[in-house]
Amino acid sequence: MRPPVSVIIPTYNRGEFLRRGINSALEGCAENDEIIVVDDGSTDQTRALVESISDPRLLYIYRENSGVATARNHGMELASNDLIAFLDDDDEWHPAKLAVQIALLTEHPEAVASFSNFWITDRRGNSTNNYLLRWGQPLQDWNQMLGTTRTFRLNGTGEEFDYYLGEHYFNQMQDDYILPSTLIIDQSRLQAPLRFLDGFKRNSSWLFSSQACRQGPVIYVDFDLACQHGDADNRLTAIPIVDTVLSRLYVLENEFGKQTDFTEEQQRVFAQRLSKEAHVLFRSAMRTKTPNRRHIFQTNKHLDRKIAIAAKLPDWMLSLLSSIIRAVKGS
After folding, report:
1. Helices (H), ranges, 118-258
2. How many CB atoms lie within 10 A of CB 323?
3. What is the DSSP pairing of strand 58-62 with strand 34-39?
4. Which residues, in sequence order, are bridge partners of residue 161?
5. Cα–Cα distance between 60 and 65 in angstroms, integer?
6. Taking Cα atoms as reference points, which of 249, 236, 248 lies closest to residue 70?
7. Dihedral of alpha carbons 62, 66, 70, 72, sign
8. 10-residue mean pLDDT series, the chain (331 residues)
9. Long-range residue pairs from 265-272, CB within 8 A, at least 24 positions apart, any chain
10. Does 135 lie in the same domain as 63?
11. Hey, which of 12, 26, 99, 307 has its CA 20 to 30 A from 290?
């Protein structure tokens, strides 16, 4: 019998999509697994939906609304197993997801986590496979990123999967390659316990998965083991663009920037990555109706010369320049 896994599903007011995710998890779970649904203060039919599913592996927890990071942490605190897998409430798993990743983690005890490729759907139900390298990251060769190609054959199915095993921390600095719904970690192999940053509304998963990658090798499965559906209106982490960029800068500076040995070795690449994000921050803040624009610039003036200059301008002048830029952009 394979090691048991605890599946964490945070949810908030998406009962109409939640059943799909739970059913996909149940299909891939073994008898000794558990699925913990953490309801982050829903006011819709979420409780009734979960309680209508009669399965002893399913645990429903309600808590006051505190955000997806806190909901995931609460699920991890309740988890009975070292293996932890995450599934967003509107996403879905391939039936073989857990079997493949747990088998690979068992085969490679040096690995602390595993993630995979995934497919997406849009509101019309159209699917796009092999989506990971279209997910905003620069196209890279997995052989260069994680070592030579390995092949895994799933017992009893004849299905084969390419996978890679290696250090992934540097790659994570470049961008977030790990969709939470594809991630599984083994807490018993970590040097230090992992938790999502409470109150961090965007990129908390990037911070979390990067911290996991810092603690050891990871396994990447080059097969679509999860689906990110695009039919929900309220994404769990939907926030304005400037706040999104600020959260990315937080991850870069407070995770990668604080690993002295790492940043000294990768100083040039790290500086380029920060500069790229600082440019996006300046452009986004000037092209949108951003409150506290001057304060944002003052706080981040160390990152970029343009931001440092803008930080010295009065609010009225920044607002005027922003209006001109938005008018030109819209013309």
Report:
1. 142-146, 169-174, 204-214, 241-254
2. 12
3. parallel
4. 152
5. 15
6. 236
7. positive
8. 96 93 97 98 96 96 96 98 97 96 97 97 91 78 90 83 96 95 98 94 94 98 95 63 95 96 91 96 94 95 96 95 88 50
9. 266/170, 266/173, 269/170, 269/173, 269/174, 270/173
10. yes
11. 12
Q: Is residue 212 within 8 Å of 177, Cβ to Cβ?
A: no
Please name every residue paired with 85 in a beta bridge, in sequence order, or none if there are none: 7, 184
Instruction: State which residues form the domain around 177.
Output: 5-228
Kindly state whether residues 210 and 270 are assigned to the same domain.
no
Q: Do 29 and 60 touch, CB atoms closer than 8 A?
A: no
Specify whether the CB–CB gap between 179 and 123 falls below 8 A.
Answer: no
Q: For 18-63, write each residue's pLDDT tens digit.
A: 999 999 999 999 999 999 999 999 999 999 999 999 999 999 999 9
Nearest residue to 149 (alpha-carbon basis) of 166, 132, 133, 171: 166
- Using alpha carbons only, give the angle 175, 295, 271 rounded to the nearest 5 degrees: 30
pLDDT in tens, 166-175: 999 999 999 9
DSSP per-residue letters across 8-77: EEEESS-HHHHHHHHHHHHHH--TT-EEEEEE-S--SSHHHHHHTS--TTEEEEE-----HHHHHHHHHH
CB 169 within 8 A of CB 213: yes
Nearest to 211 by CA among 188, 193, 189: 193
Mark whether 64 and 33 lie in a shared domain. Answer: yes
Q: CA geometry: angle at 265 spanning 259 and 266, to 5°? A: 85
Please state, as a whole number, how many other Cβ atoms lie within 10 Å of the Cβ of residue 174.
17
Residues 31 and 167 in one domain: yes
Give the CB-side neighbour count of residue 154, counting CA atoms within 13 A.
17
47 with 145, same domain? yes
Paired residues of 11 in beta bridges: 39
